[in-house]
């Protein structure tokens, strides 16, 4: 059993990756989280792109632990905001990780933006970095629309105000399995599967 | 004396335009503000560009009053935010016109953005629309850097956190005359001068 570190403290992301690996029939890999390894200094996410942040996090984690490390950086890119909040999605309100404040701010900023200009994409970059330094980085996108009020209790972040293309429900109203099938993070993680399977080798 | 309507309720903008016209020796034009004309329904600023908003405001004002109307739309375009807050500068925090909330939010969003990526520009589009529908629209830009704390009591909006290129002071530490000489709005208004002089005929 090869241990792979997912460089996150977000339990939902850990569950999500395990669920995707199981659904895709990847065996021989045990995914652990940051809670399962000794603490190490984590650099702040100051990159200008999702890819930069994902790689930096995975490099730090692989160096500190000697394990193959996966890290992701995700966010919502709103057309009417020229692709922002982007890499600042988790601290859009100025307070890191306050989902409700971030979502409320985005709704307020878009209050006067008409329906035809409310397009957006959830974007996820995922990186796998091996202890020898080898890097793989991929990007998944999920297009949709930012609506005007919250709906749904699944998911996290901006899920309650994002209706994916071809859907009438928000991504917070989809089941975890439905979300995995289409979501930005699901797509990115599946793009990483060939590299993860090699580890299991 | 030709009366020209500056479509704003902001007394500081009115004073600024009068000061620039006087400094440039434009006589024969009396600038009045929205406080000096009967109220008319003002459309919300929902354009995707500064130019769109400036023209829409001036068109509304010229139609409603029969006067030549000047309108501007201005904001700060931050490189690390892909040019946002942009047209949403005055309501960046979700509350329209709350300068302090907008500025605090921008500082919070840029807290982890390193010094070398804190470039920005103040941008102003100014439109002159005549009662016969003729339109002139121009754009002025003022490059600089967003610093990490407020300084200075002149100006308004994001002035206390913007240091123009070639300066060590913020634009809120410049005198009104210094600001007029370089600022985005000063540049845009000077680009409108030929069209304004024609009115004075």
UniProtKB/TrEMBL annotation, chains A, B:
Query: Which biological processes are named by the entry's GO terms?
Result: nucleotide metabolic process; purine nucleoside triphosphate catabolic process
> Which keywords does UniProt give here?
Hydrolase, Magnesium, Metal-binding, Nucleotide metabolism, Nucleotide-binding
Enzyme Commission code(s) on record? 3.6.1.66
Residues where Mg(2+) binds: 73
A single GO CC term for this protein reads: cytosol
Q: Which cofactor does it need?
A: Mg(2+)
Catalysed reaction equations from the record: dITP + H2O = dIMP + diphosphate + H(+); ITP + H2O = IMP + diphosphate + H(+); XTP + H2O = XMP + diphosphate + H(+)
Q: How many cofactor units bind, and how?
A: Binds 1 Mg(2+) ion per subunit.
Please tell me whether the keyword Magnesium is annotated for this protein.
yes
Q: Does the keyword Nucleotide-binding apply?
A: yes
Binding residues for substrate = 8-13, 74, 156-159, 179, 184-185
CDD domains noted in UniProt: HAM1 (cd00515)
The active site annotation covers 73
Pfam families, alphabetized:
Ham1p_like
The molecular function terms of the Gene Ontology recorded here are: dITP diphosphatase activity; ITP diphosphatase activity; metal ion binding; nucleotide binding; ribonucleoside triphosphate phosphatase activity; XTP diphosphatase activity
Check the record and name the InterPro entries matching this protein. dITP/XTP_pyrophosphatase (IPR020922), ITPase-like_fam (IPR029001), RdgB/HAM1 (IPR002637)
Function of this protein?
Pyrophosphatase that catalyzes the hydrolysis of nucleoside triphosphates to their monophosphate derivatives, with a high preference for the non-canonical purine nucleotides XTP (xanthosine triphosphate), dITP (deoxyinosine triphosphate) and ITP. Seems to function as a house-cleaning enzyme that removes non-canonical purine nucleotides from the nucleotide pool, thus preventing their incorporation into DNA/RNA and avoiding chromosomal lesions.
Q: How does it assemble?
A: Homodimer.
Question: What HAMAP family does this protein's entry cite?
Answer: Non_canon_purine_NTPase
Q: Record's family? A: Belongs to the HAM1 NTPase family.
Task: Supply the name of the protein.
Answer: dITP/XTP pyrophosphatase
The gene behind this protein is rdgB
């Amino acid at each position: 059993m090869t241990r792979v570190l997912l460089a996150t403290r977000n339990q939902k992301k850990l569950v999500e990756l395990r669920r995707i690996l199981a659904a895709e029939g990847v065996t021989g890999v045990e995914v652990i989280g940051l809670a399962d390894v000794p603490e190490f200094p984590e650099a702040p996410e100051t990159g200008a792109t999702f890819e930069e942040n994902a790689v930096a996090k995975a490099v730090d984690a692989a160096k500190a632990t000697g394990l193959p490390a996966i890290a992701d950086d995700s966010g919502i890119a709103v057309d009417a905001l020229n692709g922002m909040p982007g890499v600042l999605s988790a601290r859009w309100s100025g307070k890191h990780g306050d989902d409700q404040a971030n979502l409320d701010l985005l709704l307020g900023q878009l209050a006067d933006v008409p329906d035809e200009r409310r397009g957006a994409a959830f974007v996820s970059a995922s990186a796998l970095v091996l202890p020898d330094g080898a890097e793989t980085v991929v990007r998944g996108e999920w297009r949709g629309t930012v609506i005007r009020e919250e709906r749904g209790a699944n998911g996290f972040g901006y899920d309650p105000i994002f209706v994916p293309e071809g859907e009438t429900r928000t991504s917070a109203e989809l089941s975890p399995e439905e979300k995995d099938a289409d979501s930005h993070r699901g797509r990115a993680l599946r793009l990483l599967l060939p590299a993860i399977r090699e580890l299991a080798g």
